[in-house]
Amino acid sequence: MTGSEQDRNPLRSLLISVFAGGVIFVGGLFLVQVFLEHYAGGAGIDSSFAEFYPLMAVLGAMWGFSRWWSYEQGEYNPFHSH
Questions:
Q1: Considering the domain boundaries, does residue 1 fall inside one?
Q2: pLDDT (tens digit, 9 = 90+) per residue, 43-70?
Q3: Torsion sign, CA atoms 55, 60, 61, 62
Q4: Residue 45 structural domain
Q5: DSSP tally for the chain: helices H, then strands E
Q6: How many domains does the chain have?
Q7: What is the pTM of this model?
């Protein structure tokens, strides 16, 4: 977004970005677990993976926040600009 463009509902876009980031990261962990289960030995689903889902959700939410911030700041992003 640049110039006169302005997000009409920044809170909604924040919630969507944070939620989508969490879903992407948790989904990625789930796909890794399914791959390991079916294609890399098939030793059974390891219950210790369950402990990583909340961590992945938090990391995904942080990534989603970073993406939202980048979107809101336009060309300047303090996370990625020098």
A1: no
A2: 666 778 788 999 999 999 999 998 888 8
A3: positive
A4: 26-72
A5: 2, 0
A6: 1
A7: 0.74
